[in-house]
From TrEMBL:
Pfam families for this protein: Penicil_amidase (PF01804)
Gene3D superfamilies: 1.10.1400.10, 2.30.120.10, Glutamine Phosphoribosylpyrophosphate, subunit 1, domain 1 (3.60.20.10), Penicillin Amidohydrolase, domain 1 (1.10.439.10)
Protein name in the entry: Penicillin acylase family protein
Protein family according to the UniProt entry: Belongs to the peptidase S45 family.
Record key words, sorted: Hydrolase, Signal, Zymogen
Disordered as annotated region, ranges: 207-226
Signal peptide limits: 1-27
């Protein structure tokens, strides 16, 4: 039976190879090959999906439409409910199916409630925004190849719906699981593109209404510059718990064989529409790429091919700016530009609502973008009779990310990766770190940002902007002046964004690393400087995760002789940098407390004597068996960051400072007392192993989870939900997701280890709902099956021929 199965697969490969022929390398490197006739647009789409261990599909197709078909089909098989939920969002139909007041999952925007989400996305649909972007010729718009992928994806998803019965209880029998169109797929890509811009401000866009005619400007309504600057700095902080990542590329001078190495560790949500999904995509002679895609998208976002590997980290570039409008005294819906009034564009949007009459609201748009009354609750921007604020998001015209990804998939070197970024300019909010089989490395902050130069900010900032721009990179420009337009770089694909020459880039360093701080210390020995403030800071304190990562990777590079195994060990080292800096001092200060007691924040005395020995004996790791990790974690969360260190940050020693725990500060003893009291109240022993109280429940069973939170600085980042009544940290919200350790040994196949921490399927009845999660718990990896011989030799091999059969 096994031999017969392999013969069938070999025959399918041969058939597909014959159908496509063999392209010369130059053609295979460019996915938008206009001279090649693609598969007909009407029906007849098909692919072969070969499943190996852990339900990983290897999708084999004749062309890009067929590849999209196989991808859409296989994604639906694993994630139909989550994918369908996202398409409800981008159609603006959440209120219709789930009610207007229910909370969103925040995966595709910051909207707090379904009604706000719908008003925004229905507005995008009503105005034909995505259709116009699809119609733009490449490179400003998506290539024909990218559109064929989208078309195929929609057809494959729909075919799965027609041919299969949904077993996931989340959406079994649900009316909101419906066929999709190419426009839906493109709209989901659009939502991801504007996630850091308009998507961040959905509530402020949909709630923006002019002041009632005849009212005067409210007293004190203007935002306070200092307070707004602090709020903006917090909102755009690099160490946000919501999204993050680590990645490091090692050059040939540091490795055992002179070839490159890449370790990718993105920190993304464990639930909802920003989950990754793993696959291999192959068009013989044209494309062969393996990695992870964001749900609802047809391309590999993070991955590797035979020659190059890459990962992304969320970047510090601020993907929006504000224009402060001077309003016409006679009309708050008109604004002045060079003394002449311009009327705002009024958009009326109607949303269907479950069990009620439709809701119609008005949005107001300007030459700069939508009027916005806030960036979240912490940063209000009131619309008064004299002033309003418009949001500029350059990614609102960016539907190019699929072409960037296709360029990565066909790249043969880090130079080709950089070439794809420069040609397509499609990544909205991430850095790229890459390594190749020739030993080259790359770090680049090639993201689409508003063209805010420091000179422009100096010349055109309003008083509010003069506070927010240095503090956060958020520019607030004077919208009444035509000379404050963003302008155009000669090498930019469109006006108003930076061209490739302005983007922070480091090539061929012994190592290139990023952990969500700015580009400055991608390599601590070769700092990047000279970029504009909107990209991030220079010479400022780094997060503990960045500091710990730089210590680790610099030591590895200095040691040399590195292999993929070293990358695997780094991922699961679970070292707690905060503990290396502070745990010993905390243990000593604990032992020195009079009477071994400390006063908690409630004024009660707490016996902390048991904590002293636990902290002293702890291994300073966040492995599932580490005793003392939970105690230190709960203590560290309570210690105010401003009161942690005696020795402050120094730009001359950015990795080593600040340091020396300030145990003399009253906050130290209070935090320790509160942590001890909290664990005792939850009946959790102070020396209990971390994994006993940091876990997820799958199939009714607890799976211990290694790793630690952002503030601890752990590479293997895990953000979990604290539920002491349930036993501790009982679910993971974000953290390590699709991990890959990739290298080369001179053979035809890359040496790759991968892991999808939350597993392939969100369907609780799937056998691939928790299998990789259990591997993650045991700090294990999956050996990548990239070459045909490896796929065909899989003991779990299962072949499915998928087609558009009606």
């Amino acid at each position: 039976m096994r031999t017969r199965l392999r013969r069938i697969v070999v025959a399918a490969v041969a058939l597909l190879t014959a159908a496509t022929g063999t392209l010369p390398a130059t053609a295979a490197d460019r996915p938008d090959d206009r001279s090649r006739k693609e598969h007909p647009s009407a029906g007849g789409l098909s692919a072969v999906v070969r499943y190996t261990e852990y339900g990983i599909p290897h999708i084999l197709a004749r062309d890009y439409a067929d590849l999209g078909f196989g991808t859409g089909w296989a994604q639906a098989a694993d994630q139909v409910c989550t994918v369908a939920d996202g398409f409800v969002t981008v159609r603006g139909e959440r209120s219709r199916f789930f009610g207007p007041d229910a909370a969103t999952d925040f995966s595709l925007s910051s909207a707090a409630r379904n009604l706000s989400s719908d008003l925004y996305f229905r507005g995008v649909r009503d105005t034909g925004t995505v259709e116009r972007l699809l119609a733009r010729p490449a490179p400003a718009g998506p290539s024909r190849t990218a559109k064929e992928l989208m078309r195929g994806y929609a057809a494959g998803y729909n075919a799965w719906l027609r041919q299969n019965r949904i077993t996931d209880p989340t959406c079994k029998g649900a009316a909101w699981v419906r066929p999709i169109t190419t426009l839906d797929v493109a709209a989901r890509g659009y939502a991801l593109a504007v996630l850091g811009g308009q998507g961040r401000a959905v509530d402020g866009i949909t709630a923006a209404q002019p002041p009632t005619t005849g009212t005067s400007t409210p007293s004190g309504a203007a935002p306070d510059p200092a307070r707004t600057a602090r709020a903006a700095a917090g909102l755009f902080a690099a160490d946000s718990a919501d999204m993050g990542s680590n990645a490091v590329a090692f050059g040939g001078s540091t490795t055992a064989n002179g070839r490159g190495l890449l370790l990718g560790n993105p920190h993304y949500p464990w639930q909802g529409g920003r989950r990754f999904w793993q696959s291999q995509q192959t068009i013989p002679g044209r494309l062969n790429v393996s990695g992870a895609s964001l749900l609802g998208t047809p391309t590999v976002s993070i991955g590797h091919n035979a020659h190059v590997a890459w990962s992304h980290t969320v970047a510090t570039g601020v993907t929006l700016n504000l224009h402060q409008l001077t309003l016409d005294p006679a009309d708050p819906t008109a604004y002045l530009v060079d003394g002449r009034p311009e009327r705002m564009t009024k958009r009326s949007v109607t949303v269907a609502v479950q069990g009620a009459t439709p809701v119609t609201r008005t949005q107001w748009w300007t030459r700069y973008g939508p009027v916005v009354t806030g960036l979240g609750s912490s940063l209000p921007l009131p619309w008064t009779t004299t002033t309003a604020y418009a949001l500029n998001d350059p990614n609102s015209t960016n539907l190019r990310a699929s072409d960037t990804a296709l360029g990565f998939g066909t790249a043969r070197s880090t130079a080709d990766v950089l070439g794809s970024l420069r040609r397509t300019q499609g990544l909205p909010w991430v850095n790229t770190i890459a390594a190749d089989s020739a030993g080259h490395t790359l770090f680049t902050q090639s993201q689409v940002l508003p063209r805010i130069t420091d000179e422009l900010a100096q010349r055109c900032s309003t008083p509010l902007g003069r506070a927010t721009y240095p503090a956060s990179g958020v520019a607030v420009l004077d919208g009444s002046r035509g000379d404050c337009a963003l302008g155009r770089d000669g090498d930019a694909v469109e006006p108003g964004i930076f061209g490739p020459a302005a983007l922070p880039t480091l090539r061929d360093a012994p190592y290139a690393e990023n952990s969500n701080d700015s580009a400055w210390l991608a390599n601590a020995d070769q700092p990047l400087t000279g970029y504009q403030r909107v990209f991030g800071t220079i010479g400022t304190a780094r997060s503990l995760r960045t500091r710990g990562a730089l210590e680790d990777v610099a030591a590895l590079a200095g040691r040399g002789g590195l292999t993929v195994r070293d990358l695997q060990q780094q991922q699961y080292a679970n070292r707690v940098p905060a503990a290396d800096l502070a745990a010993s001092d905390a243990a000593k200060a604990c032992a020195a407390l009079p009477g071994s007691t400390a006063t908690g924040s409630d004024g009660q005395a707490v016996d902390v004597s048991g904590a002293c020995g636990v902290l002293a004996a702890w291994d300073h790791k966040a492995g599932t068996g580490s005793r003392g990790a939970l105690l230190f974690d709960r203590f560290w969360r309570r210690l105010p960051a401003a009161r942690q260190w005696k020795v402050p940050f120094s730009a001359a020693d950015p990795v080593g400072t600040p340091h020396t725990l300030d145990t003399d500060a009253p906050a130290f003893a209070t935090a320790l007392a509160d942590a001890v009291a909290e664990l005792r109240a939850a009946d959790i022993p102070l020396d209990s192993p971390l994994g006993k109280h940091q876990f997820v429940v799958r199939g009714g069973k607890r799976i211990p989870v290694p790793g630690g939170t952002e503030s601890l600085g752990v590479w293997n980042k895990i953000e979990a939900v604290w539920n002491p009544a349930g036993g501790g940290y009982t679910e993971v919200t974000t953290g390590s997701s699709y991990m890959q350790a990739v290298g080369w040994d001179g053979g035809r196949c890359p040496v790759a280890r991968t892991l999808l921490t939350y597993s392939q399927s969100s369907n609780p009845v799937s056998r691939h709902h928790d299998d990789q999660t259990r591997l993650f718990s045991g700090e294990k990896w999956v050996t990548s099956r990239f070459c045909e011989k490896d796929i065909l030799s899989s003991p779990a091999l299962r072949v499915v021929r998928v087609g558009d059969h009606r």
